[in-house]
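Self-study notes.
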Amino acid sequence: MPPKHSAKKAQPSDKDATEDQPQAQTQGSNGPPTGSHRPTVKDMQTDSVATLAEAWSKSESAATEYDAQLIERVYNDELVKNDYNVAKLALLEVSQYLEKYLWPHYDPSHSPTVHVLSIVLMVNEKFRSRVGAWSAFEESPEHFPAFFEQVLRLCLQESDMKLKCYLVVFMINCFQSLENPLIRSECMRLVSLSTWHSLISAAKREVEFKEYPQLLKFWKHLEKKFDAYDKEQQAKAVFERTWLSEMMKGFVAILESIEQDEEEKIAYCERFMEFLIDLEAQLPTRRYFNTLVEDHQIVAICKLSKFASNKESSVLFSQLLDILAFYTGFEINGHTGLALTKEEMTEIHAARLSKLQRIAFADFREELMDLAMSNLRAIESREALLKHFENLNQEQLIQLCQLLNIRTTNITNPEADHSRIMLLEVLLLQLEKRHSQIERINALPLYPDENALFEDAAVKEEMYSADRPLALPKLNLQFLTLHDYLLRNFNLFRLESNYEIRQDIEDAVRRLGPRAGAIDGATVFSGWSRMAAPISYFKMVEVAKPNLGEDKPSLITADVTFNVRKYTEAIQAEWEAIREHDILFLLTIEAQEESYEHWDGKVSFRKHYGLKHVRGCQVVSVIGPNGKPFDYKKSDPKLIQDHRTGNTRTFRIALDSNQYKIDQEAARKSGGSDVYQTFNIVLRRQPQENNFKPVLETIRDLMQSDLMVPEWLHDVFLGYGNPNSAHYSQLKRQVKEIDFRDTFLDLDHLKASFPGMKIKAKDGDESSLTAPFVVMFPEAPEAAASGSKKKKGSEKAKKEKASQNQEQAQDELIVSTYKTPNMGPYPEDVPNTNKVRFTPTQVEAIKAGTNPGLTLVVGPPGTGKTDVAVQIIANLYNNFPNQHTLLVTHSNQALNQLFEKIIALDVDERHLLRLGHGEEELNTELSFSKYGRVTSFLEKRVSLLAEVDRLAQSMEIGGEHGSTCETAGYFYSYHVVPKWKEFESKVAANGESLELITTSFPFSGFFINAPVPLFSDCGTAEAALDVAQGCFRHLSKLFEQLEEVSAFELLRTSYDRANYLLTKEAKIIAMTCTHAALKRRELVNLGFKYDNIVMEEAAQILEVETFIPMLLQDPEDGVNRLKRVILIGDHNQLPPVVKNTAFQQYGNMEQSMFTRFVRLGVPAIELDAQGRARSDMADLYKWRYKSLGDLPNVTERQEYKFANPGFLHDFQFINVNNYKGQGETAPRPHFIQNLGEAEYVVAVYQYMRLLGYPAEKITILTTYNGQKDLIRDVLNQRCSWNPIFGRPATVATVDKYQGQQNDYVLLSLVRTKAVGHVRDVRRLVVALSRARLGLYIFGRQKLFENCHELEPAFKRLLKRPTKLWLKTGEMYPNTARLIGAEAKADGEEETEDSKAGKKGAKKDKKGAKKGKAGKADNEEEGSASTSKDYEIQDIDQMGEYVFGMMKEQQQYAIQQQQAYLQSISAPMETDAAPAAGADVEQAEGAMEVDQE
């Protein structure tokens, strides 16, 4: 059996170590320490920068005295002399050098160059550290244009390569921040149309102006504007419009001057390539810049440069060049912004070739006659064109280029003509056919191989140090086209998946311990892994012939067998959980002699362990003991038992046909062995982390389909145009009148929800207004303006509209009401209603979500965003009964919370459907899965038909009317409806009377089982008629349900019934974003349709995983039917999880679509009142939001009024010093632990449990996985086995706990050397906002109090003592102490009472050590007269205090036992004593463990 993990050492488990996000310098997986530097406490205290920083860091605001020499000293002595050391830059950034000194004292007329460079360096450092960079410039924005101009001039003038590199990085950061108006206004002038002054000739411009005449108008306007400038303004304008051209000329000069190993020049050229790519990859910057790049022939110059030919040193440069070449020829019209189809691209290329043929025929008839007479297909390739151009000499090549408006001279030396090679290259680049990205991606294996996993430079990056660019796409604010959007996401998602797979493989291989056998050198495995098993037998089963038109096998299957005998039952169950479509990996390991040694990173992981091959595969079926496909649910029970008792498991797997083709071609060329006969390890991954293949397949499918984003959303989605354009107020399809149903509780609630608006009753009688309300809104001015452009309608309609507009003012709401119809006499007929009193902001969000368009709702912690989402869905369901709404979340937990709340509202359960595996976790007896709903429908059918039979009997109508849905329908049409109409006619003819209604009602017999009699003798005729109508509505609904169920009689298979339910019956369909990606192809093929999408946790979902759920249906008549997109999230909390820091930071992969829209300025409704935490606890994170207040329940509910029993404060930061001489430790890279904090947290948990706090109300959080495991180990040793303590509700990392809450949270910050990733304020907000009633934070005060980003929260925390203060003599929940009655108020000086408490605490220490503290008896211990304040100095004292409480409880238990024994007779005494002593034994056992 495998060895069990020791509880005393919290080492990373087989799958746990990867969650910690590396933030500090750590050991990379392929070599020495790398990563982004975070200054430690020691650095901040001892470094020479710290001494200089005292001049500005001590003051609360900007320093008042300016010393130019100080900036000189910092720059020259600390930065230049230390070669711009990252540690020095980080220290300066942390000390707020930019905010408190550099920018406040910047003077455009007097500040020297070093001042400007220092600002540039600080901005770059802030971007590298992932903290806000531009807020400092808001203080004196008028100085920014002059500063920016100085930077531009330095970019051209500076000769130091390292500084030039820093300046280019600054420009990259600027162009990545175009959402900032201050930055945008400066940057966009550099890429305007006026840059075309730098084109080779006016003829080049004229060609563009001829194609786009509007550009000529704009050009003339710019020229007039230029002529009106004075000389100084003209000089500045010339400088700005030629800046990019001059930069490119300077870049080419540096590129051509590179000699071997000139690292600084190489680094600059790589950065400049990144800069060019960024400008090409955004439409606003690309529009005119692309023409300039083509004219300056940058791609051709780079491709033919001497440096590019050096394959060893130019790897990254060449990769960047490929990306630049791709974007310069991207399929988009740069002037209109329209994506070009494949056919349009073919036409453009054909037009270029045709023009070439005409020139060849007219001017080079002798040399190029064959080219002129060839068909276009014959001359589209590079090889064919080159063959024809070889016939031209140098002069003829120059002439040809000039006729094609191609530059023929060197951009750095206009007098020098291009060489022949250069002329040929520029011609070929312009005329050759581009390779299709779609074809390349289709030929790409979706499973990574060993090269993609271990040789790709980007995937190998364990830490991104930001010192070099990467050949990665960036997720910017804007995208060129939908194809560009998908392509960038495809590449990044694939690389991130590869990185995670590599980590899993490395972990499993290390645990397997491969080594070369002593006898024959064959690989043996000395260890074991729960995620990987040695293969016993591997056999290829089938290699199917290629499909028509393809050259790869259509299917490749194999059987893989392995032994599970050595595994525990739990691990065997994990292997048995593998099902069809799950992904496995096959590994070939050929161990070397040194493989058994510990890998030190000096050689590659692959080489050290002999990892030769990695291939992915998909499970087709499980093979049973009889050699046939096997199903755990459907197979014979005996076969299942035989399978489970056997030692081997066999899977039939499908291999990647693209990869198989590549492998076979490689084997033929090299004559090597067949890869597929060498596998010796099969590896599985956690199911939730193994969905990469279907996501990649979905993106690939989308790239090849006719994508149709709704027209109203298209421009905003790509990041162009007016960010308000998709808001409902800008759309013509506004919902003018909304039935809010149960949204408002009463008229006062309605009035309070629309402040500043007048409420006008539609019938003029406001006193008659009661819920529910129908509200008519005034037409927005924008919509009215757009409506006026429509064609003229009838005069009558126009008069009606004018009359209506006059009746309703812009500040007026016309409100009507209606009586909720009686739906029947049974309790289930009474609709559920909303009980939440929504705030005005929440109502605005509900109103916006009910209207068509894009709605963004920012929901800070505890602001009821789930309730808002549920109410939006309910309103859509009731207002638009024929529309279908798709509900999507990131996690199953959030989806289930939403779904449970929807069930509780007035939504018919037959219209609800929950897809995915999380459905079984719903807290309801009903099943809302596809097959569960089908079963429910069939069961409902039986009960409904029985009701039809009962109705027929009550009406005394013979026959089998309830035999089928069809016969029931006939019965309704021919018997029920006529009877009802006859009743209505009789009542109408003879007048409404109580007696007539009660005697004539034809269905009284059916409703005899109603809980109360239908008609009351003392009731009114009106009430009786209402009851009768309600009864008929009940019957109508019964037959309506039967009509819906009738399809299930015709459909025979569960599959068909489930799909019918999904596509026809369900009106609200819920799924996770992962399920949407997994099932997109299936849903589209089924004809799935929906009109609205509501996405919760939108800020936690990757861009592409947000996009996929919007495209789960085919367009109708070329139009996407989506009417509403409602995104609900909080960009101030944690973003999507991206484990590779290179993709996270450089590729910006952690940016969600929600965050991108907020950055773009799309209108967002920010909920402004929280109801989760006590008000003073919420102050810890309220500063991150515009105006976050409290809901009434925070002050009104009893639990918020009283203090936490046993604690002096409801929240505290507890300083934890070194424990046993240690602070943070790292048993392995990124696996960070702090034993002192773990012990302290567990001791406080024990204290709370001894006071009576329920374990389920306590959560322990930490910021690192290593600490989570350590805390769990300490709990296992001290608490888990003992029912007195048990385990807390959750022990988790902050990242995993986002979206959840508990009454009391104990938070361990872990770090003592560097702040780490808690410096990300989003993580801090999550950490501080999980608790409702009590929050106790354990950390190192000196480290966190000096962190600028965390300062607002820690200022509030540190107003309270940093030693834990207890309140003795209280037990949970008995306390009469109010929350405002702490001994030491926030922000106040220490009171006499607290001083006395400290003295009393010191006196009590001895008693605590003797075990006499913490008295617990059955008296009223919440009395203020018996309680006192008690200060805990350190971890040891807390342990002693808890031990004393436990000892007193033991003594108390002994006293109770003795009293019990004395109270019973002798015979009973003998039987009862052992049972009564159980508690004593438990307490003694707990004490023994704690003493150890």
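Second protein, same conventions, sequence then structure:
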Amino acid sequence: MSLLPRAALVLWLVQLLSTLLAVTAQEPEYTANYFQNLPSRLFFFDDTTTAIYHDLIDGNVYVSPDEGATWSRVDSIPEGDASMVIEHPFDNSYAFVLTRGLFHYRTTDRGRTWQRFAMPVPPALVGKPLSFHSDPQKYGYILYQGTACESTGGWGSVCHDETYYTKDAFSDEPELLLSETSRCQFAHSSKDFKHEAHSDLIYCVAFDTSTSTGMHSLSSSRLFSSTDFFEDDLRVEDLGIGKNARGVVAFAIVSKFAVVALRDLSPGSDGEMLLYVSVDTKTWAKARFPHASSARLRENGYTIVESTTHSLAVDVMLQDMTTTIGTLFVSNSNGTFFVESLKDTNRNEMGYVDYENLYGIEGVGLANIVSNAEEVEGRRAQKHLQTRITFDDGRTWSRLHPPSTDNQGQRISCNANDEDCSLHLHSVTIPHNFGRVFSSPAPGFVMGVGSIGSYLKPYDECDTFLSTDAGLTWTMVHNNAHKYEFGDSGSIIVLVNDEESTNEVTYSTDLGRTWRTFNYGFNMRARILTTVSDSTSQKFMLVGQVARSDQPGRGRYAVVYLDFAPVRSRKCGDNDFESWFARARTHDCLMGHKQWYRRRKQDVDCYIGDKFHEPIEHEENCPCGDEDYECDYNFVRQGDQCTPVGPEPIPAGVCPPDQPDRMYLGSSGYRLIPGNTCDRQTGIKKDEPVEKSCANAQPDEGEIIHQIFEFPAPVVQFAYFKESTTILVRLEDFTIWQSSNEGYTWQQVQPDQRFVAFYHHAYSNDRAYLVTATNVYYYTTDTGRTWHHLSAPLPPNNLGLQILHFHPGNSDYLIWSGSDGCVGFGENCNVQAFYTRDHGRNWKFIEKYVRNCAWARDAELHVDPNQIICEVYKNQQGNQRFFGMENPLQLISGTQFFDKKTKLFDHVVGFTKFSEFLIVAEYQTQQQALDLQVSLDGRTFASGAFPPNLRPDQHAYTILESSTMSVFLHVTTSERPRPYWGSILKSNSNGTYYSISLENVNRNDLGYVDFEKMIGLDGIALVNVVSNPLEATLTGRKELETRITHNDGGTWKRLTPPSRDSLGNQYLCDSTRCALHVHGYTERYDARATYSTPSVPGLLMAVGNVGEVLAGYSESDTFLSRDAGFTWEEVHKDAHTWEFGDSGSILIMANDEEPTDHVLFSTDEGKNWREYKFTDERIRVKEIVTVPSDTSRRFILMGYYPRSPPVHVAVHIDFSSLTWKQCVFSVEDPGHDDFELWSPSEERNELCLFGRQTMYHRRVRDVNCVVGNRPKAETKVVRNCACQKSDFECEFNYYRNGSDECVLVPGTSPLPDDDSCRNGEDYWYERTAYRKIPYSSCEAGSRLDRGASHVCPGIKAHGAFFWLMMLFIPCAFAALIGWWYVRKRSRGAIRLPGGDNGPRYRADSGVLDTLASVPYFVMAVAGSVWETVVEKFAGATTGMRTRSGYRSVPIDEDAQILRFEDEE
């Protein structure tokens, strides 16, 4: 009986002992090792237990063979020598230790043994001096970048980088690869960059010149390539842009893309960075961003962030370079076309971006944005960061939904469904651990430190969060910020406090459901928590700074080895796993497949134990859908369709010439995205070839084709996107039509909408806006490929005022002018202005009762980028439509987006921005006169000084142009009701002094002036003058004559007529007044139809006649000049409208007097003309249109049938196949290519124009070849010339008399002499009757602007005794002198911004730098009756003029007129 209880007791004790042993077995194991310094590198050899610890401060390397349990210093490397440790990325047995000298070390057995090798030069001071080959057969192929220095004597030396190569991991003798390099890399250096290039292909960024100083010009940096280690094969990669492929800054291989960054060194560029991308090493394409003006890549202003194998991601700083705010762009499959993915991304000063893709999960990524970017930019406020997540590779982004409870089960303090209640996480810009921030190879596990609320809190106020479904849902797992790491493929998670010292870690073995702690025995501040790179081990390393009390006799830093293997004893079986599908339900499929992993279940207690075996990704292909296809080559996206860019190229013989009705199988316009794995059999097959008519195929060489499209209503507005083949057309029936292939095919945009206007963004070539009569508008950021709609705060104004204003520096900044209460004749109808910083997603009120609100900043008016200037009515009540001069129009300036307002003027007629000038027409109430105010900084203004009787106070005036550092102003001098004409005045370089340039210049009733600058050649302009002003005053009939200037208005001459007409007959005109006269700006159907073209310097066409005066338009003929108007030839009888194509290699014209059925074209610049018939029914051609750059061979004829004028037609004529021969251009051998050097001075007695002899490249006239889109050659300034009379103009109050001399206007006095010597001159000169043209760069020679000279106060004004005495002035006076100097500087002159240090000239005058006239007391005030919406909107849009080509303005010598004394 007594045995039973005893046996039971024994069994109970055994069970208890087993339980105790089990409990003991569940404790992790640890060891600690101590070091003097934190590691600069701490890494594991891939798929091994061997770790490397590099102490850079002491220069030592330590090796652990057992995941950090034990450590030993590498004795074979001398102590203190190790400056860099680099592991082989493709062979886990190799690593290299580089020293600062010539001897380095290598291991081939993961650190057990090390061998020494020698190099001729020490390693270069770059981040990656070694580059490796990815082919397993060539793992020994390594490139080494070193620095070679040569002593120059004394203390100095000259150094340059050079690259060596080894084919046996430095066991062989290294050979010199290339000298003067900055980066070399194998083309086969990434497993993702798959291509068929030669296995030994190497790219090097290197200089093509040697130097004795160690300094190179950026223009000599190029990308070289070789397939034989540069022994015989040395090529310069031209990137598809020829000799312009210079200025290379960097080369990198990112995922499957090879990327080259180079500085744009073309003339007129601002140093923008360009990216060229290749996916096959054969073809390179320029990376194109959706809005070219604002998405400019600047050095240190863009970052290529972590990218996928099917798109490249680039973060670009678009705003102020000091705010570290970017915009994320993602590319298409070949890395060339980018779309905006996420705005206001957070960056740091080092260029790191808060952006990371989740490891192993396609399409999922996390990023941080700056939610208060406006305040950060405008007021330098503290950033408020918010986290966004994408599940579809950056196409869309959403907030992180927070958990509803905290880690204690308490409800969070805000509503999780509220947008202001989101989870935000700290990211890349402030790293707190080694390696990836959020994820690891453990599938679907994501951790982060963050906070819940409207924006991210500081790190030490945050908590720790976990997601087990790739970011879809989150839980709070611990208070406070912690470092975290995943182990055993995610089955164990380890945390350590990251806010203060601690002696314990927290861990979970059930996917974060429950947590336990482990004490490792001493306090330390955690710095690093890591494990093997694939997160498959149960062992971790914790590196921290040991507390002072635990430091005696040991190092300052400890490596704690943590082994969690004893915690669990059972290995997982098949039943312990489940299938886990990645991504959100709404984005199941990405790149054609679903993605899933086999993952351990949450509620099982076992370890996975598959060490060094990453979880296997499984894919299930999805049926193909629309998102799996992209546009095929030679097709572009227009809406949801891919349309051809033109006729489709087809193989020879497919379409016989005698069978135009034959069909062929051509591209559908779509192709499957490369790398997409969708199942075509169960989905849609958008890439199936389709039958097409041979009539639509690309014609044979020598043939011309055309297409005619009939619009259902008359055309009222049309315009191309700049640098694009897409054109928009608005019809009278309120519809908008679009063609993305230069009029070959047309599509209606948003057929269910009625549009009253459209605008192209003035500074962002890819953006346009379609305005409806409601507050809904449509916009595109990709040249019309897609259109999206947004809502404005009010409907567009119907008072004829401009609706949209654009910002030159940030294309998302818009100003909208809408009308409130203006339906019918509302009692309080007024125009209100709003601005947006996020492209219309949010609008903020500016002011009401405004007539014009615009950004103060312009392309070259570099004022405060956040300043807004508004014309605001003083009395803000009543119907604004009927306001007149009795209600003063104030000019208000508002900085910080109009938060801080300043009234600039009490009463203005209007303001305008021209190049670097802000010009205001101020109304002087007491004098009832106008005053012209000019500013270069948007804050300080100076009154314009005018010759007697030519002030604009009692005259209408038109501001004409300001591209050559002066303002041209037309002042009407004729009196009503006579026909209008006036004088052209020209200002000094700050727009304040005006002198007469030419009198009696013609203008029309609307204020437009017969004045036009030549495009591409500054300082050349054509005008028409009224030759009979006295007679015209009585009869009302003006007789016009044409004048031309070649020195920016200094002198004007008649046009020299040709000796014979186009038929070879002599002209019946032989008097001294006989000249060529041409019809000007005031008579054009479309103001954009200019005399000249930006693509061919010196080429002009015009309609006119040879005689004493200008004949009627229908009595005129067509003329051409190839030398900037010095000589002319008649090219055809009758008046024609014309257009230039392909940089002048083809000219086209159509009869402009009557309907026609053909066009005339010339391939030799008008020497010979051929006819092409395009219709059987004649069309009245009103306009010939081509791309704005005049570089295409495709044209659109806009016109109508005389039988039915309301039916307008667009005739697309394609000359692309006229010849397929490409023009050859060679800078090195200019005499043996298809181009010639030409100078405007060739036909002049003087060799120089604007004080310099300039040469331009242009195609040889008789060569029939295609110029295409090749970059334009650089303008070549041969030399600056000695000054001569043509470099001078009349000074203020002087005019040019009949003897071509400048004489004083009777009754006036000259300006006082300027003796200020402000720029450190040795002498000052008395004024004369002349002043130097600011645009001229002449030197020495005849200085007509200098009178008697006087020594400036300074060194030359004092003798040696004076300066000797100055040496003995007591130092005690220094403070007094400093005080006096400050006081003196606080008085004196207001200096206008500017101050160019370079040449005061350029060569890119703008197209139609002309403003509408501002008649006295009227200045753009709309009529009192609003007859139709479309008329007002058309007036507000088609009346705009394009402007281009600006520069900053140096301070003029006459800036002293702005001098004033400060108030005490």
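Instructor comment on the second fold: Helices lie at 3-25, 373-379, 895-898, 1029-1035, 1360-1366, 1374-1385, 1429-1437.
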